[in-house]
Amino acid sequence: MQNSVKSPVVFEGVGLHTGAPVRLVVRPAPAGAGIAFRRVDLTGSPVLKALWHNVMVSPLNTRLTNADGVTVSTIEHLMAALSGCGVHNALIDIDGPEVPILDGSAAAFVRGIGATGLHTDPAPMQAIEILREISVTQGAAFASLSPSTTLQIDFSIDFVDAAIGHQRKTLNMANGAFVRELCDSRTFCRSSDVDAMRAQGLALGGSMENAVVVDGDKILTPGGLRHADEAVRHKMLDALGDLYTAGAPILGRYTGSRAGHAMTNLLLRAVFAQPDAWRMVRCDANIAARLPGVGVSQADLVAVA
């Protein structure tokens, strides 16, 4: 069975990097449509499918592009929410080049999806089963996908700032784990990085309201952390969103060490370049019960309300 939202869900905010106001509407889509963004502010309302081969490599976010140079940036938090809530098909209208950052996490997207609920279509669902380990490395960064009966994420980070330091977390993404454990974890950055990005015309919409800002051993964001390990949780959130550009849920174990958006996309490209490393499987009831988003309860949604 495949899920879409029951009715349109509206989100409004500003882009993290552009600082420009943007309105986004997640609309129902038919079974088999997948996830796509439609730039309603442009002539012809071009549609960009949220697929790995349409991703333009960027260290700061995940950006879709097409042959005409049309882009939609910072899709990862919304993609994570769609994956983690079990939304398989959606048409997303957006009136600008960047998804709104909201509070820097995926919690608002989860609340919106939860409020409207899901429409289930009886069409069979397919998943991508990883058959053998594929890995990529860039300097000290590493990412891999290996066989598993569920989607698992194992992530580790290392920062010189004592406020972050070394963090590692592993989660099975089935049974509402994303909603309970990850969706409210915010993007984070070092104070010095904010200054550098703004000097380059980036992070113009960033603030203490939508990011955790650290300086050495200090958390500068008012209210502090939502989780002691919020930084690694957010990296896992990003990874889930980036992995959803595979075009279907993944049955495999993702391991990331100092990995970012570009590394995860490089990993997907490596996987799909080797046909013997994966296969599409039709989801029977047993497989479907292990997909991200299955098992999300009203209690889980209340926890992020």
The main pleated sheet reads as: 5 strands, mixed
Strand content: 25-35%
CATH topology of the largest domain: lpxc deacetylase, domain 1
CATH architecture of the largest domain: 2-Layer Sandwich
CATH top level class name of the largest domain = Alpha Beta
- The number of distinct structural domains comes to 2
| Distance between the ends | 27 Å
Identify the CATH homologous superfamily of the largest domain. Answer: lpxc deacetylase, domain 2
Which class do the helix and strand fractions yield?
alpha+beta
The spatial strand order of the largest sheet comes to 2-3-9-4-5
Q: What is the gyration radius calculated from CA atoms? A: 18 Å
Query: What is the mean predicted local confidence, pLDDT?
Result: 91
The total count of helices amounts to: 8
Stretches where pLDDT is under 50 for at least 5 consecutive residues are none
Instruction: Categorize the overall geometry.
Output: globular
From N to C, what is the helix and strand string? EEEEEEEEHEHEEEEEEHEHEEHEEHEHH
Number of strands: 21
